[in-house]
Design goal:
This is DUF2993 domain-containing protein. This protein is α+β, with helices and mostly antiparallel strands. The chain contains four helices and 13 strands. Strands 5, 6, 7, 8, 9, 10 and 11 form a seven-stranded antiparallel beta sheet that branches. A six-stranded antiparallel beta sheet has the order 1-2-3-4-13-12. A hairpin with a 2-residue loop joins strand 9 and strand 10. The longest helix is centred in the first third of the chain and has 39 residues. The radius of gyration is 25 Å and the shape is elongated. The termini are far apart.
Length: 242
């Protein structure tokens, strides 16, 4: 009995040491992944990385991780020299495999969500008034949640030198196409005089390219919310390093 008890004590101690070593290793790995992600992008805050699955060490021996979660409070996604502030990016990277002595890493599947605030999306609209007809100019001055999957677009118009007493409002539908968040008015506002549709749509319709997402993740869907548009992101065979 004494020998069995001693054996159990040894097993428990060794098991505890293995757990401690495993947790120390995973904490170190999470820090290394976070440092690489920050170095590879334009993140304004340190990313938080959580490696799920236990034990971690056996995953490393197999050159793969089951599930890695990445959270970034905000960063600037830059395309063609222009940037848009992305907030609250949360992504799950599944089936992360290593090669080249851990110098390269690829995720089989990546999916998550992020948000673009209305103030940041507004920057994609034309900032200066546009002549839409003789004596008539207009520009977008505000974006907000329009309910039922719509964005409410506020337009300030000036007709023959007089600014209309209140902004015109239109409901618009946001979509994702070719890596862009596109906003298109469902119906055009009335300016009181005949104006060509294409001229009005130069004001109401606009798009924001979102590039430079971590690991080549792409946009898949956009949904208006209270404080901005929620975007779904996804990717496959996503290169994370190397």
């Amino acid at each position: 009995m004494r020998a069995l008890r001693n054996l159990l004590i040894v097993v428990v101690v060794l098991g505890g040491l293995f757990v401690i070593a495993d947790r120390l290793a995973v904490n170190f790995a999470e820090g290394e992944v976070a440092d690489r992600l920050k170095a590879s992008g334009s993140m304004n805050t340190d990313p938080e990385v959580t490696i799920h699955g236990f034990p971690f060490l056996t995953q490393v021996v197999g050159s793969g991780l089951e599930d890695v979660e990445v959270s970034v409070k905000e960063f600037d996604a830059t395309t063609d020299g222009k940037s848009v502030r992305i907030a609250g990016l949360n992504a799950h990277l599944r089936g992360v495999e290593f090669s080249g002595g851990f110098s390269q890493a690829t995720a089989k599947i990546a999916e998550g969500t992020a948000r673009i605030g209305y103030a940041d999306l507004l920057k994609a609209a034309r900032p200066d008034p546009i002549d839409v007809a003789p004596g008539v100019t207009a520009k977008v001055v505000g974006l907000s949640d329009g309910g039922n999957g719509k964005i409410k677009v506020e337009i300030e118009a000036e007709v023959f030198g007089a600014t209309l007493p209140k902004p015109l409002e239109v409901l618009s539908t946001p979509t994702v196409q070719d890596g862009e968040v596109r906003v298109k008015a469902d119906a055009l506002p009335s300016l009181g005089i005949k104006v060509a549709e294409d001229k009005v749509r130069e004001i109401t319709d606009f798009q924001q390219k979102v590039g430079g997402l971590p690991g080549g993740i792409e946009l898949s869907k956009v949904t208006p919310a209270k404080d901005g548009v929620e975007i779904s992101v996804e990717g496959s065979s996503v290169r994370l390093a190397g």
